[in-house]
Amino acid sequence: MALPQDPNFWESLLAQLLEPDTKVINEATAKLTELLASAQSIVHIFERLSNSGNMGVRHQAALLVRRRLKDNWSSLAPNVRDGMKDTLANIILHQATPRPIRKASADIISVIARIAIPEGSWPNYFPFVVSLIQTEGRGDLRETGFYLLQQIMELALDLESELVSQNFKDITDLICKGLQDSSMDVRVQSMACMNTFVECLNLENEVDIFLALLPHLINTIKVCVDEHEERVAIGFEVLNYIAESHIGRIQHLLPDLLVFMLTIGTNLDIPITIRQKALMFLEFVISTKPKTFVKSNLLEPTIQVAFQLMTEEEEDISGEDTGSKYGAQLLDSMALVMPTNLIWPLIMNNVSNFLKHNNPEYRKAAINAIAILAEGCVEEVEEIFDELMPCVLNGFNQENAVRQASCIAIAEFAKNLPDFIIPYGEQLVPIMIRGIQDSQDLVRVKSCYAISECSASLKEYFMPHIEPLLKRLVEMLTDSNVEVQEIAVGALSAIVEMAEESIAPYFSPIMEVMKKWMVITDKKQIMIRARATECVATLASVQKELFLPHFTDCINIVLSGLQLDNAELRVFIYGYCEHMARLYTEQLTPYVDGLVPYLFASIESMDAFNNIPEDDFT
Q1: CB–CB of 274/230 below 8 Å?
Q2: DSSP class of residue 198?
Q3: CA distance 380 to 414
Q4: Which residues make Cβ contacts (< 8 Å) with residue 119, sequence separation at least 6?
Q5: Which of 114, 413, 543, 613 has the fewest CB atoms nearer than 10 Å to its CB?
Q6: Is the dihedral of CA 97, 102, 108, 113 positive or negative?
Q7: Is the Cβ–Cβ distance between 482 and 526 less than 8 Å?
Q8: Domain Importin N-terminal: where (predicted)?
Q9: Secondary structure of 5-49 in the HEC alphabet?
């Protein structure tokens, strides 16, 4: 097939990919697919990257060239290849080139480099990259240079090449200067470069040279944090690597570094996404190097920071990306790994002070700390349980935030100290039932969580209330909040499991409600379907005879969920089938052949997942 030679043809074709009309895009895509069967089509598309006046066309051309060049490079004449290299260099060097086009062109250069460097056909590539990094007055070129340097190092890792080792000192010096550059973009890209550089370290002397960059890295992180530059995350990744692999070599820097992280973590003016990185670094050091952390003499201020973080408000049900969440994680890490004699007095002193505070968020933090201690300092909590329980019970009569914390504390007591809550069952059950009727979403959610955890220990106190309890939980399935619906189904399953044979009078209405939820396909509600599937499996376990007439209908509904290709739902489907295999082996047998292919597909999927390198998860 003869390729059109007119540049206007290619300009028009690529422009059609930018149209808001799906039909136009599909027709253009079909035409391009046909033309791309010829390797020479890349040359015409590349020409549009170089000469088009439409930035969208240039970007589309760059994307197409990057995707297709590897397969077509060997088919191109040597002079065409050299021309492409020169043109890409000129695009990058041209001061008027828009940033996205410069980045897209650098991506194409990286594709060529991955082909040309191993075969030795681009000897001046590394000097070209270095020249970009050393360009005075052009931060855009220095940034591009560091991006290409990072790609070189990734290539060296893939090929197990000596390229980095042979240029180790030069690369170190370049990164050192980049971390001190006047341009924020250059500094950020230098940190990204450093993050790849750490993977190339082999010899002890290389590690020492690399660690000499650490003060410059920390200073760059400080600058990024001050300017609320969220790309600083890559810098924290480098610090995490150092803490994991070489913490013994940075003991002299660690106290100041940890104080810096504490300062970032408590600064409300800094975006939570940045604060999170600092707090996770702290948590990592505490969890993996507790002795080193204790030697830093920062235990008391870190506990105070954790408490201060827990006073921050939770804005939604998930609690994700809040200071309160990260403060609780920080305190939990300390409670789990630090010597109890060191942390218990410090934590309890804060609990005592915060419980007296006028601000309900402080009282919330105190009760959340008690909940955390129920796992990390369980023996100490046992000794004063009857002193702590009134504090938690009193929280149910306070503001929303405090009531939520008391729900969590009761749930944690039920998980870690089940025998200790039994004497309080008569008080707790009515409180939890009132909680699921609360007007606040978070109170309802956390009350459901408490019911789920307490049901096994407090069965004798729940059973007199089972009818209104089940009725309310079913009502919550129509709540406007999906998270409320999901956790209500979980609580319903727990009550069904608790009631066992006593659930019989309520079996049919619960089953009918669950069947309705087991057929929903809305992605936003798919976890409710999963929880409903789990609930039906529980119903089958406690009422085998009553469930038998529903077996065929339910197994067909459940297996239809495999067509939705949702990994989380599949987990619940397989769990359901496991239940059925134990309870109704004969009835399940005809369905096994249809289930097996999905099981093998999931196993193969997990094998593939396990083989993906960690740095692909970015």
Answers
A1: yes
A2: G
A3: 16
A4: none
A5: 613
A6: positive
A7: no
A8: 28-94
A9: CCHHHHHHHHHHCCCCCHHHHHHHHHHHHHHCCCCCHHHHHHHHH
Task: State pTM to two decimals.
Answer: 0.79
If one counts the domains in the chain, the total is 1
What SS3 class is residue 500? helix
How many residues in the chain?
618
Tell me the backbone φ, ψ of residue 179, rounded to 5 degrees: -70, -20
CATH number of the domain at 284, please: 1.25.10.10
- Reported as a pLDDT band with limits 50, 70 and 90, residue 129 is very high
Question: What pLDDT, on a 0 to 100 scale, did the predictor assign at position 594?
Answer: 75
CB 367 within 8 A of CB 392: yes
User: Is residue 524 within 8 Å of 485, Cβ to Cβ?
Assistant: no
Q: Is residue 326 part of a domain?
A: yes
Single-letter amino acid, residue 332: D
Question: Which residue range(s) make up the domain with 276?
Answer: 251-457
Segment 8-27, tens digit of pLDDT: 999 999 999 999 999 999 99
Q: What is the mean pLDDT of residues 566-592?
A: 89
Tokens representing residue 245 in the block: 């692999």
What is the mean predicted confidence (pLDDT) over 109-125? Answer: 92
List the structure tokens of 433: 């039932």
* Position 618 confidence tier, pLDDT thresholds 50, 70, 90: very low
The answer to whether the beta carbons of residues 66 and 104 sit under 8 Å apart is yes
Residue 36 backbone dihedrals phi, psi, to 5 degrees: -70, -5
In a domain, 301, yes or no: yes
In-domain check, residue 569: no
Q: Cα dist. 124→86, 116, 117, 173, 178 in Å?
A: 12, 11, 10, 20, 22
What's the rounded Cα separation, in Å, for the pair 241 and 556?
49
442-459 per-position pLDDT tens digit: 899 999 999 999 999 999
pLDDT of res. 611: 37
* pLDDT (0 to 100) of residue 583: 92
Give, rounded to a whole angstrom, the gap between the first and last alpha carbons of the chain.
Answer: 41
Task: State CA 512 to chain mean position distance.
Answer: 36
**Whether the predicted pLDDT of 81 surpasses 70:** yes
Is 316 within the bounds of a domain?
yes
